[in-house]
Amino acid sequence: MTVLTARRTRWGLAAAGGAAAAAWWLGDRAPYPYAQRTLLDIPLPYLTCGRLDEVLRPRPGERILEIGPGTGLQSVHVAPQLGPAGRLDVVDIQPEMLDHVTRRAEERGIANITATESDARTLPFGEETFDAVYLVTALGEIPEPDRVLREVARVLAPMGRLVVGEFFDRHWIPFGRLHRLADASGLHLETRHGPTLAYLSRFRPCPRPGTVMSAV
Ligand SMILES: C[S@@+](CC[C@H](N)C(=O)[O-])C[C@H]1O[C@@H](n2cnc3c(N)ncnc32)[C@H](O)[C@@H]1O
Question: Diameter of the chain by CA atoms?
């Protein structure tokens, strides 16, 4: 093999490796592995539970849906704020995650969390069921986030709110893309906290023709 051929082969292999890595980074949509669950308990900048409270504003008596709770870092923080008359539904595609949330809630004496195994692209709830829906570092991991947003718009009450938290990892949805997807699903932007690399944003269902709105 000449020096030139050897160099070309090395460059070819490097390019193929780079393309495979890029395809994995951009294309893989496997759910977050339960084996790596301990990492989920590390609070991310701009996405702390305190910030989630500011943007979601959970209130006693509300029924709220969390999609993709993982091990329940946010669930056990939000559910107690809903009180005994309120309820937090958590939906995840991985039963191990839901079992983890349920155990964690039991250890803390939290009795108002209901766990349901489901794919977020087909939510097992009726129209206008929830006062609020939230997803933290979950939307980008789910294939077809546009379908998830349409489902969220369907299950949200007319004055409900959606909060989406995204962080720069390989499943990250840049804020601009989320804004466009939400718009197309009938959800309009109300506020965004944090830079595009790590943000929490709140949306509301777009008013239906003839509706008189009074936001809280
Ligand atoms: C990165 S974890 C985020 C966990 C948690 N929200 C947090 O911030 O710690 C993403 C979660 O979304 C769930 N998930 C992935 N695909 C899903 C789908 N199609 N439907 C419902 N949940 C899904 C995963 O099982 C996982 O629990």
Answer: 77
